[in-house]
Amino acid sequence: VQYRALSPSYWPNIVAGAITALGAALMITSVLAAKADDLADENINVASSDRALWLALRPFAALAICFALYFGLEPLGFVLTSAIALVAFMVLAGEYRPHVVIPVALIVPMALHLFFTKAASVPIPMGILEPWLLRI
Predict the structure, then answer these.
(1) Distance separating alpha carbons of residues 128 and 75, to the nearest angstrom
(2) How far is 7 from 2, CA to CA, in rounded Å?
């Protein structure tokens, strides 16, 4: 490959590095937030067992979303699968405002699709949206 940015291994390495960095940042902030919540809840009689259970199950929920993303990528396509996964991850992270969730879930996968297919000429699965995505 003449340009390294068009090599098949370049973008997966960039994405993997970004996901690792973002995951570490999220883990650190969630641990710090949990400690702050525990300090605030000491004065209030709150049943923390439900919260502790939810915090313990969140990594498994994230893993389940990742598996669904992996298995849905080919039949549903990148754009639709990523939009659904983004909604699930945002809700899992505690973002429930529709005026934030919906635009992010629609714009980010479309922007990535356009970049990879048009600018980088990297084929990505289009799935059931192929007739509409080819027109863009």
Answers:
(1) 7
(2) 8
Contacts of 52 (CB under 8 A, 6+ apart): none
Spatial separation of the C-alpha atoms in residues 19 and 79, rounded to whole Å: 18
SS3 percent helix, strand, coil of the chain, rounded to 5, is: 80, 0, 20
> What is the pLDDT averaged over residues 40-53?
60
The terminus-to-terminus CA distance of the chain in angstroms comes to 27
Q: At what angle do helices 78-93 and 48-76 cross, to 10 degrees?
A: 170
Question: pTM of the prediction?
Answer: 0.70
Q: What are the E-state strand segments in the chain? A: none
Specify the pLDDT at position 12: 77
How many residues are given for the chain? 136
Higher pLDDT, 59 or 43: 59
The angle at the Cα of 18, spanning 64 to 97, to the nearest 5 degrees, equals 60
